[in-house]
Amino acid sequence: MKIADTSGQDVVREVPKSRRWGLWLSGAVAVVLLILAFPIVSDWSQAQASVPLDRIRIATVTQGDLTRDVSIQGRVIAAVSPTLYSPAEGTVTYHVDAGDQVELGQLLVTIDSPELKSRYEQEQASLDSAQVALQRQEIQTRKAELEAQRDIDMARVTFTAAEREKRRADEAWAARAISQIDYEKAQDDLENARLVYEHSVADAKLEAETQVFELQTRQLEVNRQTALAEDLARQVTALNILSPVNGLVGNRELDQKNQVGRNQPVLNVVDLTAFEVEIAIPESYADSLAIGMAAEVSYNGTLYHAQLVSISPEIRDNQVIGNVRFMDQMPPSLRQNQRLTTRIILDEKPNVLQVSRGQFLETGGGRIAYVVRDGLAFRTPIETGVTSLSSVEVIGGLNAGDQIIISSIEPFGDADTVRITD
User: Fold this and answer.
1) Nearest-5° Cα angle at 399, 395 to 402
2) For strand 302-316 and strand 376-381, is the pairing parallel, antiparallel, or unpaired?
3) ∠130-134-135 over CA atoms, to 5°?
4) How far apart are CA 403 and CA 415, in angstroms?
5) Please, which residues bridge with residue 344 across strands?
6) Domain of 283: which CATH number?
7) Full-model pTM
8) Domain residue limits at 106
9) Is 357 in the same domain as 209?
10) What span, in angstroms and rounded, lies between the C-alpha atoms of 405 and 393?
11) Do residues 284 and 340 both lie within one domain?
12) In terms of domains, do 188 and 127 share one?
């Protein structure tokens, strides 16, 4: 028996016009979405590598002032740490111990030197003797002046008397009251008296010059002996060694009551108000360093202004040694050999393109960066300039607002496009 199909029961129904328009609209939207998504899908399909977002660091290129600097661990040293020496041989007596706080002018050490004290007493006695000799010479000079003046006065009296006798002889000779011999004798007596007077005056002048010379000689002896005595007095005073600064006693070089030689170190004192920071700067920065550069020293979260005051002329172990001095104020409670972070400001460049530093500089040689756009990173050649602790100058290849990968780009190899996944 033949079984009939259901074709006779089918009824042909027409599709409503509104539904037909909806189908056309959905198809158009799908086509537009496919067109818009085609570049993205195309880029994603062309990506040669992929990397999770949480494994990279991204930074934005900005424009602003760039400070080129270098950060170094420094060591606190005493800028003023005088070593005190013994001025003479003797026995040392310490009045302070290592680590004691001392003030300027405080007695630290006494050196007992009998030999030096004896020399001082001898030279002082010689000075007293020289001063007595000078006083004696002054008396002798005055006495010689009186004797010379006496001789002049007596010669003048004799000369005056001879003149008077000569006038009497002239009158008598005119009256032919005396003989020619007596007259000539009166003339000779006058000439003799005149010569004696003139010689007395000349002798007095020469004697005065002699006495002045003797006084000068004695005075020079006194001056010389005074200098010797004062120098020894200074050395005797220096046997009491005083603190040259307000600070802290360092090491004692000898034991108490030990013998000490001349110019032998006794102890050193650290000036607590004059600390500096010694820094070892990498050789690569040597050509950029200059005395007077600004610096910052970090201590307990506070920055202290400082200045680079000295640079070693030689390089040791690929480092240059320099000293940084505090400018306005010094951190409290510093200790020698304490470690402090020091920042040297090498250069400042205003209004430049810059981006945060990262491993991309080393792995890309400062010539390659990956610019991030729409979930993709595109390999881009760049040119970089100076670097600071946190930023690097961008000379070419990037614009302000660009985002780049600043972590290591070594995993990307030579990929031109890298897909960034969530």
Assistant:
1) 125
2) unpaired
3) 120
4) 18
5) 70, 295
6) 2.40.30.170
7) 0.54
8) 84-113+248-267
9) no
10) 15
11) yes
12) yes
